[in-house]
Amino acid sequence: MFNLRSIDINLGNASSSTAWAQAGATLGELYYKIANTSNFLGFPAGVCLTLGLGGHISGGGYGNMMRKYGISVDNVIDARIVDVNGRILDRKSMGEGMFWAIRGSGGASFGVILAWQFKLVPVPGNVTVFRVHRNLAQNGSDIVYRWQQVASLLPDELFIRAMPQLENGTVNIAFIGFFLGQANNLLPLMLINSLCVRASLSFLSGSRLHSS
Q1: In CATH, what class is 7-122?
Q2: What's the pTM value of the predicted model, to 2 decimals?
């Protein structure tokens, strides 16, 4: 029995800090280790804290910071994998072809992922999150349409996703937002001179903003 949950963080400057994380570690364990090491570094990955890093990263790694920093695999710089012959390979010994393949196509397709090395990214000491709920009676479908027009025009620091769900016989849509900065910095950004961006205020105005 092997416990592949070790996480080792190497601090440099804002552009050179890295981490090695074994495949059995969870996202929650990684975030906790990073937070205990630095208040100004993060890693772009998902929001399910019990999800294992091995599968999450080898599947791509979708998360709230993807507009600013890409998905998880965009920040991977090395890996350790056991191939079909039992060899432990790193990026250099596996070759760029396999290294490209394991980042997004599923690590189990080419071997067993043991660990990932990735860049840590700079984040502010405080971020802002918000959640807005609308149903069809509250013009939820119209707001989804507006969100589709607005989403790509928002600043890279702002990520908003729409999650429609069927509840009690009607469709409810949750708009969940994440901003790399404080609430008092977010609101002015939403007031730039663009009709599409300003339309997003139709649902932001009814939300509660929380900086943490």
Answers
A1: alpha beta
A2: 0.85
